[in-house]
Design a protein that fits this description.
Distance between the termini: 39 Å
CATH superfamily: Cytochrome P450
Shape: globular
Number of strands: 16
Strand content: 5-15%
Organism: Sphingomonas chungangi
Largest sheet: 4 strands, mixed
Number of domains: 1
Protein name: Cytochrome P450
Structural class: alpha+beta
CATH architecture: Orthogonal Bundle
Number of helices: 15
Radius of gyration: 21 Å
CATH topology: Cytochrome p450
CATH class: Mainly Alpha
Strand order of the largest sheet: 1-2-4-5
GO molecular function: heme binding; iron ion binding; monooxygenase activity; oxidoreductase activity, acting on paired donors, with incorporation or reduction of molecular oxygen
Family: Belongs to the cytochrome P450 family.
Helix content: 40-55%
Length: 405
């Protein structure tokens, strides 16, 4: 673990707590972080440390590594704000919020009241056949070939198909959407990130304006009827919510799928367990969510506060490091063991008032993907001669995954 020069640290940060972590290097590595880097962090780091490269652009923030300490923060929106947390608008010198992700109470409550019915479990369950058809269509293109590029041919396309259907956006624009997504989420270059944000914003504003002039039976059109504080949503709120769905719908499930299927390909006995007992898949997905959570998000200290005995100043970032909390040995028994009967809670889809809006859809997508691969393909493995690499950063993922059967 690299340490940071004391001369660059704020005065309240003890030098012994400052570190640059390999988990946030934003590069490809050959070792599986869930098997090496993350357990090492739990073994060697204090409960809280000041990580100089934890935010994109190698910006600093506090890493809280335990489940309980993180949950305490998630339950306290008064002291830990999300307002502007992702720096999406700030990066292009604007001030809109990603809705509801960057909103705080009390207005956050009104946003969720308007949004929750559209993402309720029964609503998402009604999409089951549509989601399954999307998975089956993609698998059919390669199942008789004996191999596939899992990321390119399945995990990138599958969730975006579903989100584009939901929003009423054209499937033929998928390749461009994926380019923008990678430029926003998988780069350490703030200029590249900002240019992608502008392009996504311009595109979504065009679609929103088109719905105002030509209403359709789709989700974007329905947003115009949402209310907050007794009024219709304004332009920034409509756009901010569309931007949220674009961000959340395009990447998280893709990253989870890559990690899950890499694990199943590397450990055929675990794959066989699900093939022989498909009834385990629902609980297995919850364990996969714990073990392969990809996202390190953040809260911002709203005032001077103490966490784990350390002073944190207003405006400083504190991590919601789901890849790390899922391996907390003080909360989970043998966290490195992937157990399909664990039934343990996790915060991989958020916690507190900011529980992921799309969590029921994400679970459905993951369950159906595993089910359909088990039904449609024989035992698969890492393709002969292919070396798996892992991207470490704010979104842990497998950039490429060649499978064969």
């Amino acid at each position: 673990m690299a340490t940071a020069p004391a001369s660059t640290l704020p005065s309240h940060v003890p030098p012994e707590l400052a570190v640059a972590l390999p988990l946030y290097a934003r590069k490809r590595v050959s070792e599986c972080p869930q098997e090496t880097l993350i357990p090492e962090m739990h073994a060697t780091l204090p409960p809280i440390c000041y990580v100089t490269n934890i935010f994109p652009g190698d910006q600093p923030g506090w890493l809280v590594k335990s489940y309980e300490d993180t949950m305490e923060m998630l339950r306290d929106p008064d002291n830990f704000t999300k307002n502007g947390m992702g720096k999406w608008a700030q990066n292009i010198n604007e001030n809109w919020l990603v809705i509801p992700t960057e909103a705080d109470p009390p207005i956050h409550t009104d946003y969720r009241k308007a949004l929750n019915p559209s993402f309720a479990p029964q609503k998402m369950s009604a999409l089951r056949d549509q989601v399954r058809e999307r998975a089956q269509t993609l698998i059919a293109k390669f199942k008789d070939r004996g191999s596939c590029d899992f990321v390119d041919e399945f995990s990138e396309k599958y969730p975006i198909n579903i989100v584009l259907d939901l929003l009423g956006l054209p499937q033929e624009r998928m390749e461009q959407f994926l380019v923008w997504e990678k430029e926003m989420l998988h780069t350490n270059d703030w200029e590249v990130r900002g240019n992608a944000v502008r392009q996504v914003k311009n595109y979504l504003l065009e679609e929103i304006e088109d719905r105002r002039k030509n209403p359709r039976d789709d989700y974007i059109t329905r947003i115009f009827d949402f209310e907050v504080d007794g009024r219709k949503w304004n332009e920034d709120e409509v756009f901010g919510h569309c931007f949220n769905l674009y961000l959340g719908g395009l990447d998280t499930v893709t990253s989870l799928l890559g990690n899950i299927f890499c694990f199943l390909a590397r450990y055929p006995e675990r794959q066989a367990e699900l093939r022989e007992n498909p009834g385990k898949i629902v609980l297995a997905v919850e364990e996969f969510l714990r073990a392969f959570a990809p996202v390190t998000a953040f809260r911002i200290a709203a005032k001077e506060i103490e966490i784990c005995g350390q002073k944190v100043m207003p405006g400083e970032y504190i991590s919601v490091a789901t890849p790390v909390t899922g391996y907390d040995p003080t909360y989970y028994e043998n966290p490195q063991e992937i157990r399909f009967d664990r039934k343990a809670p996790h915060i991989s889809l958020g916690g507190g008032i900011h529980k992921c809006l799309g969590m029921h859809l994400a679970r459905l997508e993951l369950q159906i993907a595993v089910e359909e691969f088990m039904k449609s393909l024989p035992e698969f493995r890492i393709k002969d001669g292919f070396d798996v690499s892992y991207f470490v950063g704010n979104i842990q993922h497998v950039p490429e995954l060649e499978l064969q059967w």
